[in-house]
Amino acid sequence: MPEKGKERRDHERFDVPCTVCLLSRSGQAIATVETINISDGGALMSAREEVNVSVGDRITIEVTVPEKGDPDRSHTLSCPATVIRKVDAAAPYDTLVAVAFPEPLDPSIKSLLTGSDG
After folding, report:
1. Considering Cα of 32, then 37, then 41, then 45, what sign does the dihedral take?
2. Per-position DSSP letters for 23-64, written without gaps between them
3. What pTM was estimated for this model as a whole?
4. Can you tell me the distance from the alpha carbon of 36 to that of 14, in angstroms, rounded to the nearest whole number?
5. Torsion 82-87-88-92 (CA) sign
6. What is the pLDDT of residue 67?
7. 5 lies in a domain?
């Protein structure tokens, strides 16, 4: 049994606030949400409105990441994902959506998210 309070996740999480567009498999916009945290394994996002996804849905997320040192410039990164959890009316948010990535993040994407070189 894991120790109480011990982190059980396989990947380090980064608390990086980014705007994310959730897209259906056909490329239609589902919702715009904000990341709470993101890791090589997936992301936890929040919305102030209902998000029309279900657990098991395969979607694409487009993450807009501000450039370090120049908030007027940004990069948009696209990544396939599967919805693994959805919680409606989760105070202080209206909806929480968790997704899993099929593969770890590309090092260049991780660099943008964390502001590090690797």
Report:
1. negative
2. E-TTS-EEEEEEEEEE-SSEEEEEESS-----TT-EEEEEEE
3. 0.80
4. 9
5. negative
6. 73
7. no
Q: Quick check: is 95 in a domain?
A: yes
pLDDT at 105: 77
What does the pLDDT read at residue 14? 76
Q: What is the CATH number of the domain that holds 87?
A: 2.40.10.220
Could you say which residues of the chain have pLDDT below 50?
A: 1-2, 5-7
Q: How many domains does the chain have?
A: 1
- Closest C-alpha among 43, 54, 3 to residue 21: 43
| Three-class SS state of 7 | coil
Judge whether 8 lies within some domain. Answer: no
Sign of CA dihedral 91, 57, 110, 63: negative
Assigned token pair, 36:
């709470």
Q: Give domain status of residue 6, yes or no.
A: no
Name every residue whose Cβ is closer than 8 Å to that of residue 33 and which is 6 or more positions away in sequence: 19, 20, 22, 45, 46, 47, 51, 95, 97
